[in-house]
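Example (one chain per record):
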Amino acid sequence: MFDTKTRVIQLTLLAIFAVGAPTACLGQATGEWSQFLGPNRNGVAASVELPNQLPPNGPTRLWSAAIGTGMSGIAVSGGSVYTLDQDENGQYAVALSLANGKEVWRQRIAAAYKNSQGDGPRSTPTVSGNQVLVFTGQGELVSLDAKIGKPLWQTDVVAQLGGTVSDYGMSCSPLVVGEVVVVHAGAPDAAVVGVSLDQGSIMWKTGSGPAGYSSPCLFQIGRQSQVVALIGNQVLGIDPTSGDRLWSYEFATDYNCNTANPVQVGDGVLISAGEDHGSAMLRISKGNSDFQVKPIWESFGVKSCLRSEWQTPIVIDGVIFGFDNVGGAGPVTHLVAVDATSGKQLWRESRFGKSNAILADGKLLMSSMTGDLVLGSVNRAGYTELGRANVAGKTRQAPVLVGTQVLLRDDQSILCLDLSK
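Predicted structure:
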């Protein structure tokens, strides 16, 4: 039997987790996927119906387009598909037609980026109005005209602020909040910066620490819009207008490998990292004057409930679904479900494989590093696979869903597949 204090705590936790998805970045047209991990940067596609199973040979291929080297993901807006790639002459922003995959424009944005873990740009373009915002492997923020690819402005935020390029390349996907573009700079007193959307000038800077590999998100917490940025050694809550730091929580990881995005769960924030680090659920509350951060639960080390290497978890009805990676970037990855209120692991699909997931129609749509497209039904009780087909080469990027079209990028091409029932 529970005493009154315990019951109050339970009811408080239920209230915290009653809300699933954040309200940030709303207002984008249905069928748009104009930034990293979709309209709300949480991997959720709204108002899309998926089939109840995949054909054995996979969905119908509508088109494929050759693409250069790089780990950049895909953004879709206004009938165009945007990504970054590289050849021996430099890094490029590229626009393709969503209708047929034909190249619309290609614009050089920087010198080629070389890295022992793979060459080419890492971040995903962000489309805002008539602008495409891109971030190079060296940390140059570039704005281009979305229709013709003409450069509008370019700011080398890392060099300008005395920052340090991350060991494996700058990977932050730009976040647009009103008239400000937010990126990680990895500089002293400028871990995160806000840049003018119109002119590319530095508007504000905050925090100190390495850039890491995650991307900032916009959450509504305590009735206030906040940029939540997981950099290499901590997570920061930031006022998007002034750049004032609202709160912070230390989250240092080996090699500064904080890569998965923070995820909002009501007024809670989930952060998770690989390298056998683990996860924490933070409650962010507004005191009389300042925001306060307090762990609701923490799960660290080799027995952690979730160690997200680069894959951002998905939250459905108070359950976290994510990929738990064993060891330091090792080959073994499990698909797990974790209760968001307690941090208790509910079930595990062992050795599922390194994959990324998005959510649509109550189902997980996943792409594996081996090129499989997987459809699965998940709930608190377990996982049911609804189909798996090998459709692509090696990929580390999450699927993109626009209507019933799914786009995947592997090392050589972008594929557009038909997922209509």
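Caption: The first strand starts at residue 44 and ends at 45.
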